[in-house]
Design a protein that fits this description.
12 strands; KFase_sf; Cyclase family protein; seven-stranded mixed β-barrel; globular; single chain; KFase/CYL
Length: about 220
Amino acid sequence: MLNISRMVDLSQELYHLCPVLPDFEPPKMDYICVGPRDGWKLEKITMNLHTGTHMDAPAHLGEFELTLDRIPVGQFQGRMVFVPLQDRGAKHPIGRADLEPYADQLNEHSIVLLFTGWGEKRGWTKEWIYESPYLSNEGARYLAERGIKAVGIDHFSIGGTGEENEETHRIVLGANIWVAEGLQLNDPALREGEWHVMALPLHIRDSSGAPARVVAFQWEVESR
């Protein structure tokens, strides 16, 4: 019998005016009902769908049509390939040389998670917004060639904020690889053993992306 023996939340907190891509309005949270006054507590949130921990569908780029709600839910899980890159430094272009050591793990079952250390830097700073390591066009092409299922990063943009960003998105999304952005990947446990990843986006019709709760977990076989 299989049981989940360990689980790690890979999602960042969503809160009022939390840091986002500066081109976007930050999320706003308001109270509709306040417990002591109304007897109920009820909040309202206003934000775009690519805020905080979220997933991109191919339709995030206008030339592609596949929306997140049309991807079978079974595609939102797979075997984690954890790539530690936190020592590479600011603005490092994650390329083929960074990914080739994991070649034997990269296949149609793989969810590749790029740990840059930028999840811990999350804030309204130039460093967090503009200086993150990013998946380069070369790295994106390599992952597409390997036929992986998905790729995620601990920053709001898989391609950073520089000139390679749009083409990196085009390469991976054009290969029907979904993207998870805004992850939190600094738990030391992720470096040990085999992990499975599940990402469950909000089920929104015709969506180019959606907020998601992303978790990693390990299995154990329980003898009867």
